[in-house]
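W.,

You were right to be curious about this one. When I first looked at the sequence I had no strong expectations either way, so I just let the prediction run and decided to look at it fresh. Below is the sequence, 166 residues in total, followed by the output.
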Amino acid sequence: MSAPSSTINLKATLTFLTVTLFLAMADVAAKEPADIEAADSPASSPTKSQHPREKTLMKRMWGVEVIFVRQTSAGYMLEFRYKVLDPEKAKPLFERRTKPVLTHVESGATFIVPTPPKTGALRNSNEPLADHTYWMFFANPGKFIEPGDLVTIEIGDFVATNIVVR
């Protein structure tokens, strides 16, 4: 006598779930505790990441706080986000004459802000306002810069060093 098809489907589903659960547990057990912590944290930063006092100095001198640099547009662009704390000090970052440059620390390769004919430079150049977040995009041809890499951003005299790319 044969079992109804719903019983066979239930047995097959339970078997599949048991095997899947077993394999997932085996994978977690095989990992070292440090591997699990690293997977849970954001992109691990190299040892030369930005010093906390450097952020304080940047706030005091330039009136800005760097939020992040991350890949965007499928990795072909890098987005630089920063928050203006003091608009008067931050004005030099918004000058249209100033050409921002992003430098890959390891290789020394430099990247620019693209300027498409229809939209203009992919950056903010209006008057800065306090407590507003601003952005700037840099070209990343060939996805050269990857998450975890260190970059430096120069906008005129403003220099933000050793920023870890997300």
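Here's what jumped out at me. The helical segments are 5-30, 33-40, 52-62, 87-90. And, maybe more interesting for your project: The longest strand covers residues 64-72.

Coffee later to discuss?

I.
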